[in-house]
Amino acid sequence: MLVLFTDTDTDLTLKKAKEFGYHLISMPYSIDGETTYPYEDFEEFDAHAFYDRLRNGALPKTSGISAESYKKYFEPHFQNGDDILYVHFSAAMTATFEAMNVAVKELLEKYPERHFYAIDTKGITIISLNIVEEIGDLYKAGKTIEEIQAWADKEIYKFAVYFFADDLRFFKASGRVGGLAGTMGTLLGIRPIIHINDEGKMVSIGKEKGRNKALARLIQYVEELGEEIEKHRVIVAHTDAPELAQEAIRMLKEKFGDNLWIELVDVNPTAGSHCGPATVGISFHAKHR
C-alpha cells in the first residue's frame, strides 16, 4: 500500500488531511522560547490569535526537525509493509530535508523491501497546497505512483502563486526573499509583490503603493498567466486579513465568473511567521510560474 505524507507548511489542515488520506509532518515555530508543533499541539489553528500576537510585537522563529523525528513519522508505515510518498514544501527553503534524507537512508537499509518517494512542490503554503490537493485527487482516484510522478513532472511548474506583504519587518528578519532590498526602509504603504520561482525560492518582482493596487496587481497576474483556470482550484490565502481576502475573491469572480473553483485558507503559522499579518496571496494553474 502507498501511504501519503505532506507537511504543515503546505497549508493542509488536519481535517483536509484526513479527507485526502495524508499524514501530516508538523513543522514547528517558536515564540519567546516556547516551541509549538501545528496540529500536534492543537487541532485547529486560531489564525486571528496567532497573527494578533505578531501584531503586538512577537517575532517567531522557525526550525526544521531532526532525523529521529522523521523516523518516528515514517518507520511505523515501513514496519506495516507500506511504501511512502511525501509531497513536501520547497527543499530550497530549508535544511530540514538533509535530516530527512539521513532518516530515510537508515530506514531503507533496515527495510530494504520498502520504497520512499518524494515530490518537491518547489513552493510553500498555497502553491504547495494546490499541488498537494491535486495529488490527493489522483491518489483517491486510484492512480499509481508512476502516474502520480508523471503528473508531477509535468504539472508542478504549472502552478503559480503571487502575494504581497503588509509588514516588511517579518520578511527582513527571515531573509528568505530575494530582491527585497529596494523596498525596505520607511517607504510608507509600499508592498512588495512576491512570487515563488521554478527553483522553489521566494522572489520580490515589484512593488505597489497601497493594498488596492497590490490586489489589482495579483489579479493581473492571474489574468495574464492563468491556464485552464476553470478546471483547477484557485486558492486565496491570508494572514488574518479576511476583508482583503474577500475583496480578492470578489475581484476574481468579477473577472472569471461566479463558478470559479475558489478555496479560502489561512496561511499556516510556521510560514506565516516569515510574512507576518495582513499578507494576501493567490495560487492558480498557469502557463508558467
SSE arrangement:
Layout: E1 2-7, H1 14-20, E2 22-25, E3 29-31, E4 34-36, H2 47-55, E5 61-62, H3 67-79, E6 83-88, H4 96-110, E7 116-120, H5 126-140, H6 145-155, E8 159-164, H7 168-174, E9 177-178, E10 190-196, E11 202-209, H8 211-225, E12 234-238, H9 242-256, E13 262-266, H10 269-275, E14 280-285
Parallel strand pairs: 1-2, 1-6, 6-7, 9-11, 12-13
Antiparallel strand pairs: 3-4, 3-5, 8-10, 8-14, 10-11, 12-14
Characterize the structure shown:
This protein has 10 helices and 14 strands. With 289 residues, it is α/β, with parallel strands linked by helices. Helix 3 packs parallel to helix 4 and helix 5 runs antiparallel to helix 6 (145-155). The chain is globular and about 55 Å long.
Kindly summarize this structure in a few lines.
The chain is of the alpha/beta class and 289 residues long. The chain is built from ten helices and 14 strands. It starts with a strand and ends with a strand.
Measured on Cα atoms, how large is the radius of gyration? 19 Å
Overall mean pLDDT stands at 94
What is the approximate shape?
Answer: globular
Specify the number of helices: 10
Beta-strand portion reads 15-25%
What string gives the helices and strands in order? EHEEEHEHEHEHHEHEEEHEHEHE
Distance between the termini: 33 Å
Low-confidence stretches: 182-186
Strand order of the largest sheet: 9-11-10-8-14-12-13
Assembly of the depicted chains: single chain
Helical coverage, percent range: 25-40%
What is the count of β-strands?
14
Tell me about the biggest sheet? Answer: 7 strands, mixed
Which structural class do you get from the secondary structure elements? alpha/beta
